[in-house]
Amino acid sequence: xxxxxxxxxxxxxxxLVLTPQRxxxxxxxxxxxxxxxxxARGYALAVLTGALDIPGVKPAMLRDxxxxxxxxxxxxxxxxxxxxxxxxxxxxxxAEGDTDHPPDLAELVxxxxxxxxxxxxxxxxxxxxxxxxxxxxxLIKLVTGGLRVGVSARLAKQALAQxxxxxxxxxxxxxxxxxxxxxxxxxxxxxxxxxxRSARAAPFRPVMLSQPIAEDDFARITPDTYAAEWKWDGxxxxxxxxxxxxxxxxRTGDDISxxxxxxxxGLDIEGALxxxxxxxxxxxxxxVAGSFGDLQQRLNRKTVSRKLxxxxxxxxxxxxxxxxxxxxxxxxxxxxxxxxxETLVDDSRSGRIDLSPxxxxxxxxxxxxxxxxxxxxxxxxxxxxxxDSVYEAGRPKGPWFKWKRDPHLVDAVLMYAQRGHGKRSxxxxxxxxxxxxxxxxxxxxxxxxxxxxxxxxxxxxxxDRFVRNHTVNRFGPVREVVHTPTEGLxxxxxxxxxxxxxxxxxxxxxxxxxxxxxxxxxxxxEADxxETLVxxxxx
Amino acid sequence: MAGRRAYxxxxxxxxxxxxxxxxxxxxQGGFHIDPTRAVDVALVTHGHADxxxxxHGTVVATAETLKIMEVRYGAGFAGATQVAEPGATLxxxxxxxxxxxxxxxxxxxxxxxxxxxxxxxASGDYKRLPDPTCAPFVPIPCDVFITEATFGLPVFHxxxxxxxxxxxxxxxxxxSERAHMVGAYSLGKAQRVIRLLRDAGYDAxxxxxxxxxxxxxxxxxxxxxxxxxSPATVAKGAKGDFAGAVVIAPPGALQDRWARRFPDPxxxxxxxxxxxxxxxxxxxxELPLILSDHADWDELTRTIRDVGAKEVWVTHGREEAxxxxxxxxxxxxxxxxxxxxxxxxx
Lengths: 539, 346
Description:
Oligomer: heterodimer
Number of domains of chain A: 3
Structural class of chain A: alpha+beta
Structural class of chain B: alpha/beta
Order of helices and strands of chain B: HHEEEEEHEEEEEEHEHEHEEHEHEHEHE
Strand order of the largest sheet of chain B: 7-8-9-10-11-18-19
CATH architecture of the largest domain in chain A: 2-Layer Sandwich
Helix content of chain A: 25-40%
């Protein structure tokens, strides 16, 4: 029986694109999963989470298909204007759509999965002729991935959790053991079957996160109850060895093994370790941790060259273990896990794994002193872990605290403001700010960052009023506001760190900038200078 | 005489009508079409502000367009006015001029300019889809067709207006606790949206932004019934008043402080640009209504075929793509690079 499910899927994607509210997106997803039968919903889930790979059709083949039907120049003008390949093709494809035979989503996906590289494009072509514009768009998104509908894999998992009345951690626990079209997963969520057993080797297990420490938490911090560690500014990873299978996961469960083959090779101990991935500098006796800039060299890469691996080797600074050998130790107290971890790391011979040290302290005041003067620029604060805490997925309140270093503060001048989105669409809520530098013939402001949070609703209204009354130029949704030495608005901006950047005119890039205070009292001429900022750049 | 006749017979269309700093100019007739700065004699295709500007010596336009200009600019918007009846031919020197409906907004016209057997149609802005608020476009056979290209890319296909209004009504039924704020250009689009809502059976009062009041009243006066309209004003703290209501405002107002007075509004925008999802998303539109007063790609290309022009001049919009299409179809075409005309507002 052919059912019109491709149409439902297309309208789901269409609605998701235009819905700004996260809760409404969730409702759309849950409703879809509830209303759509297997295996179609499973393929839809795979598309949404980026888990569907159709080897028989690649984007270049789609480009060839379009070239057969549409003048290349007209396509180029159109693509230029629209900016999204799937949307351009869906709109420019010269066919009306044969609405008498809407395809079944599952049938369509299965035929594509079976297709060879020569059949694949022909199947797509046939469907492009048969479908309407929105369905064509959905089909191309399905084939090429890269949805741009504002749904993260995490949001999709959240929807699954809602569907089954579970916690998202439960979904993440099984996620890496299930595959499209996920019939076993849905059966479990709907109470028709047991939890899917992870058939996959070296699965991901949801991680434990910390809460920021608050003033009234300090009373509980004593050396007997809480252990202290440095908080490293690397990438939180879970490193798993299960027999011959080794995988490296991000904290959200993405498999990032391929970007760090050097570390994967070095994971020579059985179990699942929790720790920080850092990039080192090779020295005569092993590695020393490099800077955040070194780490950046290895980020956001799908693959990595030998040369880069030699100059910027990755290693793991471990601080916990979930599985020791083959034993699940998550229900043990932190102290017991720590002992297991120390034994495990001691067995490693690769030189790629070391231990994050436990810090000795006598009082909160001693911790305070450690925190303000850490021995390594890669340390962004302290972690405090209750000695009896079990390894619990999610962000429980109490067992783990993070105590970050105070942010840097800088006084900058508001230069440009842009309207926000959703509820803020009538407010100028995104601010570009600058600091002074010597321009040869006097001082000029150079933009150093952009912030869109940190202020209260009242402050937002005040800044909005200021922007509207002091606009000197408009560029679409952006307004340039007055920013001279005597006239303008000074913003106190808080940020975590400053990196060198070649993409910004100022040569610096802020991490997590936010507005901490409005300095109506301060004349712009007294705002900070670029030289002050440059001194904060981390080695 | 013979010499003069020979000269006229070899007359090039560009001698009859040519781009100038103020817009299209007919030297033999001494008039401009839709001039962007003040001139002696201005032939105006329709009342949108970028085409109809105040301060000319004489304005020649349809009776409706003259009324629209009067509402917008006041009684003294030109030194003198002359009504152009659609279908009636007027003489300017050796040039004859005939206005014909363009289907764009109330009173909108194309202008046929003729001299010695050469026929040029300046179409102003136009569309081919039916519009209950104005007379439909009439294709006029000509040698040169001057066209806009606002939506001159093969990705632009406007939707059936009734379907778009059905989308709006469905959303109103679904989210009856939220005001639906429809961004619509204050001349033409706004009245068309209202009329389409009425045709779809929506008879509740429709709330309008102050900028629409006079033009809506004029449409009524000229025979376009719009049903009950109320000003979209609200006393402080009475946000609930607009729950489930349709509010129509110029697109700019939706992003302005004005919009804050309504309860968690569904931002809708009636425009041809809404065909492009990422555009709608970027401008914070939750319910895009693909509704335009300009021709889409299919209408543009169909019209060029319908009028049988040997040559096409493209005034404003995405002219390069339309010129390319003409090339591919063996029709001479060139962009005029006229400045001062706006895209449909985003």
